[in-house]
Write a structure and sequence with these properties.
Largest sheet: 8 strands, mixed
Distance between the termini: 34 Å
Order of helices and strands: EHEEHEHEHEEEEHE
Shape: globular
Number of strands: 10
Number of helices: 5
Helix content: 25-40%
Strand content: 15-25%
Strand order of the largest sheet: 3-2-1-4-5-6-10-8
CATH architecture: 3-Layer(aba) Sandwich
Number of domains: 1
CATH topology: Rossmann fold
Structural class: alpha/beta
Bound molecules: NADP nicotinamide-adenine-dinucleotide phosphate
Radius of gyration: 16 Å
């Protein structure tokens, strides 16, 4: 797959680039600085239509390793014009979760701005023309991949652990990008239980 990774210099983004290249994908990185391991890097801001106009045409899919309504707003028209339909975006499980209520109230109080923006970005995708998938993570941590994750399609996690390594998240994002059955679906992902 010819894959564009947006936010490729981030902690998850760098792992997506690395793992996508290892899976044999042709990886273009979009970041505000050069990204090691990508076949090419387009350096610039992902909300800039000129930067996106350079990065998007010719790709089979775009993977946003950063959740952002400003990026979605800029990206959707550029992808539509270029005939690139597949988009996978990171998001947070907290956007839709209702339990445990006290913990969620606390994290929403602390991260209200970012969560509200992720909800906005998800809404823009749901109402838009692209073949989108949203991958809502629990709490991300650095560290080695465990090689297993818990996934489900519910608002509240049906199992798994709240701690998810970015390495396992990157692998899940790629699994979703490669799976056409995931089009127009939002999946929750957490660490494995035990
Ligand atoms: N962190 C968590 O615990 C958590 C939990 C649940 C879900 N998530 C989801 O996972 C995503 C990735 O998390 P992370 O912790 O790996 O993120 P991160 O390390 O903060 O990386 C985000 C990257 O996005 C880049 N970026 C932001 N706006 C950009 C723009 N306009 N143009 C180009 N690049 C831009 C940043 O660039 P610069 O380096 O240049 O600033 C940064 O490299 C989050 O965005 C969120 O959707 C995170």
């Amino acid at each position: 797959m010819r894959l564009l990774v947006v936010g490729a210099a981030g902690r998850t983004g760098r792992l997506v680039v690395e793992q996508a290249a290892a899976r044999g994908h042709e990886v273009t990185a979009l970041a505000r600085r050069e990204v090691p391991g990508a076949h090419a890097t387009v350096v610039g801001d992902a909300t800039d239509p000129a930067v996106l106009g350079e990065a998007v045409p010719g790709r089979d899919a775009v993977l946003m390793a950063v959740g952002s309504s400003a990026i979605v707003r800029a990206l959707v028209p550029v992808m539509t014009a270029a005939g690139v339909r597949r988009l996978v975006m990171t998001s947070s499980r907290s956007v839709v979760a209702t339990r445990p209520k006290l913990l969620l109230d606390l994290v929403w109080w602390r991260f209200r701005g970012p969560y509200a923006d992720l909800a906005r970005a998800e809404g823009m995708l749901e109402g838009g023309p692209l073949d989108w998938s949203v991958v809502r993570a629990t709490m991300l941590a650095d560290g080695p991949a465990r090689g297993r994750v818990h996934t489900d399609f519910e608002a509240d996690a049906t199992g798994g652990d709240w701690r998810l390594t970015r390495a396992d998240y990157a692998a899940t994002l790629l699994d979703v990008a490669e799976d056409s059955a995931m089009v127009r679906r939002a999946v929750g992902v957490g660490g494995p239980r035990g």
